[in-house]
Amino acid sequence: MTSAPESQTLSKPAPRFASIGSPYFGIMLACMAVVLILSNIGAAKGVVFGPIITDGGFFLFPLAYILGDVMSEIYGFKVARKAIITSFALSAFASLCYWIIIALPGFNDDYGNAKQAAIEGALGPVPQIVLASLLAFLAGQTINSLILVKMKARSGERTLWARLMGSSGVGEFVDTLIFCSIAASVIGITDFGSFVNYVLVGFVYKVGVQYILVPVTSLVIGWIKKREPSYWA
């Protein structure tokens, strides 16, 4: 009885990931949290460019997904999941702070009343935006990270561009659909046509930005991999 060829009996090597002992992960985690908090504030404002409907956080949010891609590729799914949860805990804390700031008694003159109204208008809708972002980003980023890591387990260090594009497309669609469904009413989108516009524009824009920046993301990933001693250990 002949044995199976050696190439069939050997299993694929486990995908390579780094530990989080270096400062790079902490820097990326801090950037992700800041981007998320600022995009939640910006998302409270509806923005119109001709027929295009979006929100004020449109230019920031794709950066959070790019950071998620970098962390997933270098550190793995478990570490990326910790970054997602930590970012949202900080975002929820920021939302609590906004609520306290609004509730605190202010000066009762005309200037104080005007300032209170401005703060309520700017920060008041944020808790619902945070809820929308929490559910959407948690689902979308988790799916994005999981797909990227699963693809890496099959291809190893090869075809990084395919991992970045494939995972981002699915993750961003889930994220955009959930977020827009919850946040649309907060920024003043009430009819179905405007909602579809909001979802499609958000999805196409976010994925487009990430696809355009795939070469830059790949360079950043390569740069960090070379400087992460534990990645090649």
Automatic annotation (TrEMBL):
Annotated signal sequence is none
- Per the annotation, which location comes first and is thus the protein's main one? membrane
Question: Which Pfam families does the record match to this protein?
Answer: Vut_1 (PF02592)
Taxonomic placement: Bacteria, Bacillati, Actinomycetota, Actinomycetes, Micrococcales
Q: What does this protein do?
A: Involved in the import of queuosine (Q) precursors, required for Q precursor salvage.
The Swiss-Prot or TrEMBL record annotates one GO molecular function as:
transmembrane transporter activity
Topology in the membrane? Multi-pass membrane protein
Similarity annotation: Belongs to the vitamin uptake transporter (VUT/ECF) (TC 2.A.88) family. Q precursor transporter subfamily.
Q: What organism does the UniProt record list as the source?
A: Arthrobacter bambusae
InterPro entries recorded: YhhQ (IPR003744)
| Keyword Transmembrane helix recorded | yes
Q: Which residues cross the membrane?
A: 21-41, 79-101, 129-149, 170-189, 195-224
- Keyword Transmembrane helix found: yes
Record's keyword terms, sorted: Cell membrane, Membrane, Transmembrane, Transmembrane helix, Transport
Q: Where in the cell is it found?
A: Cell membrane
This protein is called what?
Answer: Probable queuosine precursor transporter
* One cellular component (GO) term of this entry: plasma membrane
